[in-house]
Structures are given as structure tokens and as C-alpha cells.
Amino acid sequence: MIINNPKTRTMNNDNISSSKNQDNNTISDVNESHFKYIEIKEYDGGGVVKRLDVSGKTDRSADTIENGMNINLNHDDYYTFSYDSEVELELI
Known about the structure:
- This protein has two helices and three strands; from the N terminus they run αββαβ.
- By secondary structure, the protein is of the alpha+beta class.
- The protein folds into two domains: 1-31; 35-85, no CATH class.
- Strands 2-1-3 form a three-stranded antiparallel beta sheet, with helices on one face.
- A hairpin with a 5-residue loop joins strand 1 (35-42) and strand 2.
- The protein is flat, with a radius of gyration of 22 Å.
- The model is unreliable at 8-12, 15-21 and 26-31 (pLDDT under 50).
């Protein structure tokens, strides 16, 4: 990150090195493990009928899987729901 002094338009090296240290700490905080799931739920009662773990998949792959699940799904009784979780859930 380059920091310019608006009055003199010169770079301040002290600010640059301290910004790098702050950025590294921020990056380490972001590297938490998260789980991604797709569920098939019932409209009546909202019970989970099926839960798939798509944590290792890209967002595009997870969308493709959910779209495939919706092709033959009985939409009068069921719907799909995708979400992120901080805890690992039991697969159904």
C-alpha cells in the first residue's frame, strides 16, 4: 500500500512498512476454516431431508450442484438452501 502525503505528494516509508505488518496480521485472521452446505428442506415444518457438504468446491461448482438438484425436485413440497457455517454439520 502506497501512502501519499496530500500536501507534498511524497511517500512516507515508515507508513509503508507499518502498513505491511498490519496487513499480514489481518490476513492471518481471515484464514479460518468455513464449511459450505446445500440442503433440501421441506416446506411443511422446514425439516432437512438431505444435506451435502460442498466445502471443497468452488462457488460455481456448488451452484451447478444446486441447479442439478433442482431439476427433478418436487418444488411443491421441497426447496434447496445453501449457506456457510463455521462448524461442521452432520451429513444427512
